[in-house]
TrEMBL record:
Entries under InterPro entries matching the protein: Homeodomain-like_sf, HTH-type_TetR-like_transc_reg, HTH_TetR
SUPFAM superfamilies: Homeodomain-like (SSF46689)
UniProt keyword terms in alphabetical order: DNA-binding, Transcription, Transcription regulation
Protein's organism: Bradyrhizobium valentinum
Positions of the DNA-binding region: 28-47
Domain HTH tetR-type: 5-65
A Pfam family matched in the record: TetR_N
Single Gene Ontology MF annotation: DNA-binding transcription factor activity
Protein name, entry field: TetR family transcriptional regulator
């Protein structure tokens, strides 16, 4: 990592808690510069606007998260444990940092405005990865999709839709982890039907 990348990462690391504390609209470049322990002029040498900085933070977070998701899905363990670990990584890194903010809804909305392509690209990649894991698990006889009359890609899409719903419920005061664990129990119960017991 070169010096410019290190500087950008330090700025993005400093900016995240500022956005969480104040929300996007109320955060100024001066606030971020202060948190990063630099002058506003120095900050503007790295990022020309608050919008550019936020988008860069989203891009970095999504890239790192997807690496962790891929690692979780490739790890040892049964398919449900690996999916749960992958979803936990996705939520821990992309949802949890903002979920505790009083301005969580605004921050998620801003992300979809400024980094929609990044966010939707990561979601599409997550669906594709989950679909492949489900396809492989069905081929090995570890799950059965017959009972739900669905293809792996359909189930993968529903998993991602469900975690979006869990994120929204979290904003209403429910626990992200508890919601995900309940969903995974439901998924395990549904897809383990008609699977021969060894």
């Amino acid at each position: 990592m070169d010096q410019n990348d290190q500087k950008s990462d330090a700025i993005l690391d400093a900016a995240l808690p500022v956005f969480v504390r104040h929300g996007f609209r109320k955060t100024s470049m001066a606030d971020i510069a202060r948190a990063a322990r630099m002058s506003r002029a120095a900050l503007y040498l790295s990022f020309s606007s608050k919008e550019e900085l936020f988008r860069a933070g989203s891009a970095r977070a999504h890239a790192r998260t997807m690496q962790n998701v891929e690692a979780a899905l490739a790890a040892d363990g049964d398919v449900f444990s690996r999916i749960e670990s992958a979803l936990a990584a996705f939520q821990r890194e992309l949802v949890a940092p903002f979920a505790g903010s009083a301005d969580a809804a605004e921050l998620f909305d801003v992300n979809m405005t400024l980094a929609r392509d990044i966010t939707l690209g990561a979601r599409a990649r997550l669906v594709a990865l989950l679909a492949q894991v489900l396809c492989d698990a069905e081929a090995y006889g570890a799950i059965s999709l017959q009972v739900v009359e669905a293809k792996p890609a359909d189930v993968a899409g529903m998993i991602v839709a469900a975690i979006e719903g869990i994120k929204d419920a979290t904003n209403a005061g429910q626990s992200l982890d508890e919601g995900t664990r309940l969903f995974m129990r439901l998924l395990r119960a549904a897809l383990s039907q008609n699977v021969p017991r060894s």
